[in-house]
């Protein structure tokens, strides 16, 4: 991938791409949407739950609603290979969009809006070049910048020199009810896309899905990415992480195998607005394997203690067994064993930390807090690295090793590097 740009300081920014595929274990030949449809339509007793604002849907309800949205995307002319970006949308809306896009072969882009969020939005528009965007009203960073307002500033600035190229600007439910979002003429509500989808027949959707498969044989083997996450990498520099549908399907495949041995569990995972790829992967895994997912509220506050209090209260209330969240929050939780006295966390068996090179001391603290905790990966390159062996069972000589890439991980890492112009 060749993506370059320059700034007024005389430096040149270049995105460099690396690629990793582990073929040490057999790959599933099943298609991504087959996993989702088969699993979701039979799982009336497994749920996706958003804590705040509260929303709960069975997997079947969730999948059915996502397919209405998929039909709405078809109605506005979106097709396989198009790209959809999400800016500051939180709750169920962006996750339903994720599944709708995956079903149609539309590339989906999530993001972590670290401050200044205008810079992140600009990078995504200029380098991802989305056909459509979903805009929400979340705030981020110490300055509590409003995503919708920053998005407007960015596209106005880009439009001074050239068209921004976005065909469809769609706002979510929260933005629709927020007067600070200043919805512009020509934008469409997500509700209106659902209304269009209700008018489209299931036959049209089925034909669109079949066309996706016919165009690419079994489209889970297409190397072109179908999901993207902009995140703050382990080095502190922005990264673009590209996942393709094969990665999603194999995560589902191996999740099903694990569930046959250990049974269903309840995952607690950060909101998609928190960034990186955790919720994307957990969503696919839970839907395809019949696990419950509880999505913690997006932390729209610079107050870490308030955020951690909200996380632990939800963990107690929903009896979460495996918590996956931002590294900084998991570290603070593991460093304070008194939380186990303040909250009833008997159900919590594992803290999973990702994007972080853990010290032996931190690993021991993780294991002390929850015995089956896992050091998820050592840096973004090692997504869901080591096999899920609890830290508490690792031999001493292994406790400070960087995780090896997990089986069937396929992803691309695009690092942003700054070089002096020649």
TrEMBL record:
Residues 42-416 form the AMP-dependent synthetase/ligase domain. InterPro entries: AMP-dep_synth/lig_dom (IPR000873), ANL_N_sf (IPR042099). It holds the Pfam family AMP-binding. Coiled coil: none annotated. It comes from the Eukaryota. This is FadD. It comes from Bugula neritina (Brown bryozoan).
């Amino acid at each position: 991938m060749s993506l370059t740009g320059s700034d007024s300081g005389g430096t040149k920014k270049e995105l460099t791409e690396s690629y990793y595929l582990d073929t040490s274990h057999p790959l599933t030949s099943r298609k991504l949407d087959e996993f989702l449809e088969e699993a979701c339509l039979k799982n009336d007793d497994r749920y996706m739950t958003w804590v705040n604002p509260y929303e709960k849907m069975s997997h079947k309800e969730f999948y059915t609603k996502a397919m209405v949205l998929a039909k709405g995307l078809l109605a506005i002319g979106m097709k396989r290979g198009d790209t959809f970006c999400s800016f500051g949308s939180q709750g169920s809306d962006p996750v339903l969009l994720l599944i709708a896009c995956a079903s149609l072969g539309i590339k989906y882009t999530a993001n972590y809006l670290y401050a200044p969020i205008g810079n992140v939005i600009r990078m995504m528009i200029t380098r991802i070049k989305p056909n459509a965007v979903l805009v929400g009203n979340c705030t981020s960073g110490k300055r509590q910048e409003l995503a919708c307002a920053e998005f407007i500033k960015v596209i106005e600035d880009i439009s001074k020199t050239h068209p921004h190229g976005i065909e469809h600007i769609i706002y979510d439910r929260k933005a629709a009810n927020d007067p600070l979002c200043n919805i512009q003429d020509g934008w469409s509500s997500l509700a209106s896309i659902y209304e269009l989808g209700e008018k489209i027949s299931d036959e049209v959707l089925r034909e669109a899905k079949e066309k996706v498969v016919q165009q690419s044989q079994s489209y889970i083997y297409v190397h072109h990415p179908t999901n993207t996450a902009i995140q703050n990498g382990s080095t502190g520099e922005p990264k673009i992480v590209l996942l393709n549908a094969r990665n999603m399907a194999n995560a589902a495949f191996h999740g099903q195998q694990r569930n046959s041995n250990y049974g269903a569990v309840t995952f607690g995972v950060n909101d998609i607005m928190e960034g990186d790829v955790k919720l994307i992967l957990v969503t696919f895994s839970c839907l395809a394997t019949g696990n419950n997912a509880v999505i913690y509220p997006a932390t729209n506050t610079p107050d870490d203690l308030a955020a951690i209090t909200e996380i632990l209260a939800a963990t107690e209330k929903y009896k979460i067994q495996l918590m996956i969240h931002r590294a900084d929050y998991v570290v603070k939780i593991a460093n304070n064993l008194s939380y186990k006295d303040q909250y009833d966390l008997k159900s919590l068996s594992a803290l999973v930390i990702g994007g972080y090179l853990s010290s032996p001391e931190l690993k021991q603290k993780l294991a002390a807090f929850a015995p089956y905790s896992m050091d998820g990966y050592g840096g973004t390159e090692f997504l869901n690295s080591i096999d899920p062996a609890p830290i508490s069972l690792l031999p001493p000589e292994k406790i400070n090793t960087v995780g090896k890439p997990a089986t069937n991980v396929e992803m691309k890492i695009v690092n942003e590097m700054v070089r002096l112009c020649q």
